[in-house]
Amino acid sequence: MAFASFAQLLRACDHQPVWQAILKSDCEDRQTDERTSFEKMRGMYRAMAAARDAYAPEERSQSGLVGGDGGRMAAYVAAGDTISGAFVGQVIAQALQMGESNACMKRIVAAPTAGACGVLPAVLLPYQAAHGAPEDEMVRALYVAAGIGQIIATRAFIAGAAGGCQAEVGSAAAMGAGALCALRGGDGEAVAHAAAMALKNLLGLVCDPVAGLVEVPCVKRGVIGAMAALSSAEMALAGIRSAIPPDEVVDAMREVGEKMDVSLRETGEGGLANTPCGRCARERL
Predict the structure, then answer these.
(1) Which of 66, 137, 190, 248 is such that its CA lies 20 to 30 A from the CA of 184?
(2) How many helices (H) and strands (E) does the chain have?
């Protein structure tokens, strides 16, 4: 997927949907046909669903730092007394479950990274369940998400070690926002601005894993990324646009990441990892 900017992607979407432009670009890059590409992406979506189905609330990570919260949230949602409603509750539960599965070394889909694996399935899988969307529609949404991720990776970075958690959960939130917007009929401009709003509101998010493990605070940050994706998609669909153009938002994220102290870029030396409790966890493990 060779798009290096949202402007370039939007030019390619003049006479076709966003997902189709990205599909065609993928076929050109990988020298494959559209059917083969689509079925490969379908496999990714089904792997997300399989990871959801394989979640076990009784399992704990080897460190003991995470596990079970996805089950607790699901039970809370099932009780029917949530503040934000069943759908949002399911998104939260799914984000927790996917992040915990990653920490428990189960099979997940890096989207765009393992540390941010909870965001995209957390917004897409509950959406399909709530709206009865055909699987093909969900696969098309994954193309939109992938195209956004490619732009961010090309213009900036998607690794916490390079740019902090803004590069991981922030990118995942942008991908989820754009995918949701496309699912609801948003055009290319709406998709780009949904992604921009999600990313810009997570600018400066540091990567500070306790004991150097992708567990705390990573799992719960997936929830925040999913919420950013939902709210940004809703704003874009309402006609709201980012005051800062999407490509400039990505460039700003790169600038912030480059200025971020190394202790806040996945080294486990700063932020929450350097709190008394965080240091105690590192010594214990």
Answers:
(1) 248
(2) 14, 0
